[in-house]
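Hi team,

Filling in the usual template for the complex we talked about on Friday. All components are listed, including any nucleic acid strands or ligand strings, so the model treats them as one assembly.

SUBMITTER: L.P.
PURPOSE: interface mapping
COMPONENTS: two
RESIDUES: 294
SEQUENCES:
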Amino acid sequence: MPDDLLLPGQRIARGVCRLLRSHDFACLEEVVPKPGLRVDVMAMGPKGEIWVIECKSSRADYQSDRKWQGYLEWCDRFFWAVPPDFPSEILPVGEGAGLIVADDYGGEIVTMAGEVPLAGARRKAMTLKFARMAALRHHALRDPGLL
Amino acid sequence: MPDDLLLPGQRIARGVCRLLRSHDFACLEEVVPKPGLRVDVMAMGPKGEIWVIECKSSRADYQSDRKWQGYLEWCDRFFWAVPPDFPSEILPVGEGAGLIVADDYGGEIVTMAGEVPLAGARRKAMTLKFARMAALRHHALRDPGLL
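RESULT (copied from the run log):
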């Protein structure tokens, strides 16, 4: 998608996905682990690790999100991703959450998140959901004739 | 991809993927379960079922493939997919393999394959491989700037 059609959070997500790709994580944007909860980026590592990354483009964007602790139970590690000029001192990093600084083109893991491994049944269910969602989205892109 | 750039087997694969999508299976083409073995279509069902489909466009195409029994250990069900004018009597359907008749646009399951469930460890490993491959391919299509 051309850069100027992306919203600020989506531009950060693009940089985050490029960063995580370089760490051998496969990323999917806008994943819904359960009804009413949407995560900006879900990433799957080579051993099946599941990371969730929430992208916040500005202080206001962050302050309007009161549900972030709900994300923790859907991943092994949770990160905030913010642009370089974000006032990162307002983020609850250090309560287990990690920090990624990213722009449109890439980023850096500034603080590694703590790990709280998912229970086996939930990891299995999330891996399957991720697999099917990724394949269905890929299918829709490569076969525009798909109904 | 425009129709006329697809090889005959890829056109059948497209129809197969559309068919299986209608059965709520998410499809990925050209999956390599292990080095040296490539399956035309791998499909993942809502309960994590893994189906493998080999597409054969002609008698010669089928007769050049001596490795099909090697596919069985990578799926719960195995199908041949052939065009309507294929001499399907030459296929070893009924030895557990199923039969799909497909063209460029869709298809039909003519004979349901027998089920031989994967062992848990292999299913887990294949689901993870499928998930990461689908997400990486999707990423490459939606972010052409990805290196």
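MY TAKE: Chain A touches chain B at residues 1, 14, 17-18, 21, 26-28, 44, 46, 48, 105, 124, 127-128, 130-139, 141-143, 145-147 (CB under 8 Å). The longest helix of chain A spans residues 120-142.

Thanks, L.
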